[in-house]
User: Fold this.
Amino acid sequence: MTRAFVFPGQGAQTIGMGKALADAYPQSKAIFDEVDEALGEKLSAVIWDGDIDALTLTQNAQPALMATSLAALRALEAEGFSVADAAYVAGHSLGEYSALAAAGAISVADTARLLRIRGEAMQAAVPVGVGAMAALLGLDFATVTEVAAEAAADGEVCQAANDNDPGQVVVSGHKAAVERACEIAKAKGAKRAVLLPVSAPFHCALMEPAAKVMAEALDDVDISAPSVPLIANVEAAAVTDPATIRSLLVEQVTGSVRWRESVAYMGEQGVTEIWEIGAGKALSGMVRRINRDIACTAIGTPDDIAKLKA
Assistant:
């Protein structure tokens, strides 16, 4: 089977994630220690024993989810599995950074610092309450793009932000415009339109200030060619050139996450198996709705790894 490794994005966070891995594998514990040291604080304490509201803060959730993904990967490596076994890596939004760290393109410490900066910059870009995001269910990406354009009245922003799967597209922008998009979508036959519990409108033009911050931050970080090609969010195609990756990570802040197309691309390239590395199973569900011929396995605990060995 041709395998790809994928890494989850924001929303997958739970208190206690990765703790069983850290207890079972010294290599996994070392990842959390490295992230704590890079950030100059005990993020691991927030992840394992903290309050979910604190963990869900964007500047905490992003490095925390990356740490959990890399801890799962180190446990896999301890059991003889390797990212080198994969044809591709990919990640959903912040998961793209996890994918790059997994493939050795960016160090774990630099990835943690970049995600802390990214989270803070995204939160600071738009005052709380000004922006919103909503999941529109039952409409395709082309229709949602039309819905967003219609909703973006009087200079307000509304964009199709995440093309997750054939029946789920997320819009992002000014709160009033996103609320209009929900009503327009229902009129066009959407099964549901649900405002999401997020603190900022990610992946739209309102994130431009954050994109500028990330451009400066990424300029100060070494990026190598990944050992495995990355399927980039904004291109839905494989990239390996470090300069291209650097520019795409900036573009990603305001651009759409083309997840449906990314999974379709992997299928077209012969991928028959996807391992979701880290917290939750959200990406596995999306993959199944995109391409039922791709087998999905979520790997986030020692028990998950034991099943692979059985």
Notes: The CA atoms of residues 89 and 239 lie 10 Å apart. Strands lie at 3-7, 88-91, 131-137, 158-165, 168-174, 192-195, 230-231, 238-239, 273-277, 295-299. The longest strand covers residues 158-165. The mean pLDDT is 96.
